[in-house]
Design brief:
four-stranded antiparallel sheet; alpha+beta; single chain; Alpha-Beta Plaits
Length: 109
């Protein structure tokens, strides 16, 4: 099948986790995504490769059946070409403040 037929279904969610029940619902939703073939692209952003529009529609339907009662879930369907054109922007790594810093000079008393 040509690459132009492949699409990516991107799921972005923000679910409450204040109570044990909310955490359980959020974990169940995340496990559903993993078992349905999604992979984690970033925290709360999961992606699945779909073989065309029909497969994407099928997986959106599965997603609708598994929606948690509370929270926000969004989907975005993009072509493989659009997904490949995504830019990954990374800032400088911030040093961990809890980790002791190495001294560059030797102190002699």
């Amino acid at each position: 099948m040509p690459m132009s037929k492949y699409m990516r279904l991107i799921v972005m969610f923000d679910l409450p986790t204040g109570t044990a029940g909310e955490r359980r619902a959020a974990n169940q939703f995340r496990h559903f995504l993993l078992h349905d073939g999604y992979y984690m692209m970033q925290f709360s952003i999961y992606v699945r490769l779909c073989n065309g529009q029909e497969a994407a529609t099928k997986h959106r339907g599965r997603l609708l059946r598994e929606l948690p009662e509370e929270g926000s879930v969004r989907t975005l369907l993009v072509t493989e070409r659009q997904f490949e054109a995504m830019e990954i922007l990374c800032g400088e790594k911030i040093p961990d403040l809890d980790e002791p810093q190495k001294e560059s000079k030797l102190l002699v008393f």
